[in-house]
Each structure stands twice: as structure tokens, then as C-alpha cells.
Amino acid sequence: MIVLLATVVVSVRAAEPVVIDDEVPAEGGFRSFTLLQGLAHPWSMAWLPNGDLLITERPGRLRLVKGGRLVPAPVDGVPEVFAAGQGGLLDVRLHPRFSETRRIYFSYAHGNANANHTRVAAAKFDGDRLENWTVIFQVGVHKSGKQHFGSRLLWLPDESLLVSIGDGGNPPIRLSGGWIRKQAQNKQNHLGKILRLDDAGNAPRDNPFSDTADAEKTIWSYGHRNIQGLAYDSLRKVVWASEHGALGGDELNRIVKGGNYGWPEATFSREYLGGFKISDHVSKPGMVDPTVVWMTAIAPSGLMVYTGDRFPRWHGDIFVGGLKSQDIRRIDLDHSGRVIAQTALRIGHRVRDVRQGPDGLIYVLTDESDGHLIRLEPAADRQAPSSP
């Protein structure tokens, strides 16, 4: 009877979103160790081939960790960024052939409170400082305010680069006579999109709207609110994205080329003021439904698919950082990517980023003025609960 019920639940979930509106069981089987403190709102991290670690701080600094110790002075070569609200120095990724190119890529906010946008830049790293900082892409419209820049970077196996761009912000921020968030459905600009670029910032010829006259050639998918988690799933050969909703309605999405993910025309989210529905629709024909929806906001930031061997039971699972929930959500998937269960790794701090390290362990950055770098290690004496 139990096996049959489980089979029915999984088959239903494969056809429609898994909607979570309750607390989920706490995950066991791990211990956490604080490796560093005193980081200023750290945002992202990337390991160098020699084992050193780069960490971005939202105020506009790049930090280097050598031999487990934080180098006191920030890395030289980062220009001024628009560090206000949600803006600042954001993601950092090494070029797929870093040992050859020595290039590191960044996303960041640029401008001022009245006119700003997201940029992507590349620079060469000599081991101590950045050189030849070059802007390879910038969002083509300026917006006001301090919200919804995105922005995560993700290299695909073909060495093209995905870039998530936020929708520009909440009401009352406007653009072109309407709420700026409606631009997520406008294929003529970059707001509320995932973009695909080559390593020089150009649109690859096989992008989905390359031959569409009234669409930006860089667009890979659209109808997004504010994606702060992107991960390539090498086991299932798919891209996952975690996306902020407004008042509830946070999403985990399986990204498809050319897909429309609905925002703000189809969403579970409600308005911050009054709690009214943003849309009468949670799904529409021709739009891609989310895989998971969190009705109680977790504020997702940071995303990874675990492929290591230090936590064998978690192999192939998705890990979603939670700013508001102050935890990491483990999404247990079957081989096809269907959701089986969800648990929470309690961190007790706002989780900005979560990454698998070269050693197969899990590393976490916390979003605070006294931000932490935390390492999660296996703990065989703790049993993890199951979750329906």
C-alpha cells in the first residue's frame, strides 16, 4: 500500500509543480564548521586550480583565501560598482579554460540610484591582482531603484555563458508607462531574462531568438522575476534555476531553451502590500510551470547539484540556499529529475551561496555584515529524516 501511494504521488508531481506551504523536516548527517568570519555581505565564490578561493563582497571587493587564510587586502583591479540595496559586486566564475586564458568573469550593478543596470565583465588574474577589466555585456536599458539585478553566471559544457538578469524591481518602479516587472515578458530587452553569451559577450548564432526580428538575440529564456541561483546538472544534462517570488511563490525551475516562465502573468506570488494576487493565473498555455513552488518564502540564493562522493546519499540532489529561511533546502530527485522529497539543512544565517568544493564537501556563504564561510562535512552519527 505504501509503495503504491509513493508511486502515485511521484507521477502527479511530474505533471504539475510541487507546492510547499509548510515547514519541512530538518536534515541530519552533517556537521558545520565556520572557516572564516568578517566578510562584508559575501555573494559568491570560485576555486582556483591551485586550491585558493575567490569570494566577492557585495560592497565591491574581491577577496582571496590562500591556504585557508583570508588575505587581508582585497584583490586590486575591481572598479567602482553600484553598491546599494541589492546591487553591488555579485557573481564570479572562472573561464572554463582558466589555466590557458587566466580570465575571470563577474556580474555586478553599475550606475546610480536613478539610472543603473547589470553588467558582465572579464579580467585577467595573475595570482594577486586583476588586469584588463573589460565590460563584455551590459543590460540595454537603465532602471531606477536598488532592486532585482540578478545575477548569476553559469558556464555550459559548450563554453557558452548563461547570465540571469532581474526584472528591475517591484512597484512603484516603472518603465515605459507600466510596472517595470512587466518587462520580463518583453523580448525586446534584457530584463527578467536568462541570457546566453559567448566568452566575448556576443550572442551565439543558435540562441532561440536569433532569427526573430523583434527580440534580443541574447535571450535564452524569459518571464523571470529575479534569479539568484543557476546550476548545470551534469547527471541529467539540464539547467536548474532558483528564483525569488514576491510574497511567497519562490520557484525552482528546469530551464528549457526559449521557454517563457510566466512572470508576472502566471505566478503563485502575491503583492507585498495587501497580499493581493499578482495574477489570477498560476499557469498558462505556452508557459513553463515551475518544478517546485515555496508558498512560504525562503528567498532562494545560491544553487548546486551535488555530484561528489563525500555525501553518497545526496548524490544528484539539488541544494537551494535560503536567505529568509536561513537554511539550505535539499531537493531529492529521481534519475529523471522528478521531486521525491525535501529536507532543510539548518544553518541559522542568511544563506547567499552554496557550492560543492573540489574536495567534495559543501561550502556556504552567509549574507551578513559579518559574513561567514562555512564548510559542511559528513556526520555518520546523525540520521536524516525522510520527507513526503
Structure explained in plain terms:
With 388 residues, this protein is mainly β. The protein has two helices and 27 strands. Strand 9 (115-125) and strand 10 form a beta hairpin.
Q: Which features does this protein show?
A:
388 residues; five-stranded mixed β-sheet; disordered C terminus; 2 helices
Low-confidence spans: 1-14, 384-388
Question: How many helices does DSSP assign?
Answer: 2
Radius of gyration: 20 Å
Number of strands: 27
Mean pLDDT: 94
Helices and strands: which structural class? Answer: mainly beta
Strand-residue proportion: 35-45%
Distance between the termini: 15 Å
Q: How would you sum up the major sheet?
A: 5 strands, mixed
How do the strands of the widest beta sheet line up side by side?
1-20-19-18-17
> Would you list the SSEs in sequence order as H and E?
HEEEEEEEHEEEEEEEEEEEEEEEEEEEE
The helix content, as a percent range, equals under 10%
Shape: globular
Q: Could you give the topology of this structure?
A:
Layout lengths: L1 H14 L2 E3 L9 E10 L2 E6 L5 E5 L3 E6 L2 E2 L18 E6 L3 H4 L1 E10 L2 E11 L4 E9 L14 E3 L5 E5 L8 E2 L2 E2 L13 E5 L21 E4 L4 E7 L4 E6 L6 E6 L36 E3 L5 E6 L12 E5 L4 E7 L5 E8 L4 E6 L5 E5 L4 E8 L10
Parallel strand pairs: 1-20
Antiparallel strand pairs: 2-27, 3-4, 4-5, 5-6, 7-8, 8-9, 9-10, 11-12, 12-15, 13-14, 15-16, 17-18, 18-19, 19-20, 21-22, 22-23, 23-24, 25-26, 26-27
